[in-house]
Design brief:
The chain has 226 residues and is an alpha/beta fold. The protein contains eight helices and seven strands. A seven-stranded mixed beta sheet has the order 3-2-1-4-5-7-6, sandwiched between helices. The radius of gyration is 16 Å and the shape is globular.
Amino acid sequence: MWNDSPVGIASEVFGDALPVAERYAEFLAGPGVERGLIGPREVDRLWERHLINCAVVAEAIPADARVVDIGSGAGLPGLVLAIVRPDLKITLLEPLLRRTTFLTEAVGLLELGNVEVRRGRAEDAAADLSVDVATARAVAPLERLAGWALPLLRPGGELLALKGERAATELEEARPVLARFGVRTAELLQVGQGKVDPPTTLVRVVAERAAARAPRRAKGSRKRSS
């Protein structure tokens, strides 16, 4: 049985959208676990580690932005952002059929009109997708992720990559790649102060110009489920 939401913080973060977030949590704890998109051990910490942790990313996204969530998996953070920020137009980009099926069912269940589920890889989507913000969580090291995400951004667009303890190290390792793309800025950013402990760490990369398409990734690359 999954734990109830931490009412105070969840209410503050999700506001009137809290009932929708609760339905999503139930869907993650049920079909999400059954289909292997979320590990069973994550059920007891869905709110703090996943839902609230992802929702606070909205603090870094401008109003009315078009967003692509790369390797969306179970919808983290893309579906959470769609719930907490109905002004955003979000594309959930995921190459695996079973995951896009899950995402499509979740969008229908939650009645989210600001979400498109798209099956495919970022490398291929760059041909016809240009967005203000790209998000990603547990997809790949930054030096690889940047090569997939930056071609999807309009000039001045931003990559917001959710990272953990190695965020600073990944940023330094990725600087040669970022320099080749001619990015405007690359920095660490913390969001969710006082709402999630520790705060969510983002690597924020701002594109200077439209980037060239990246090479196709190896078939073995995949997103972790938690």
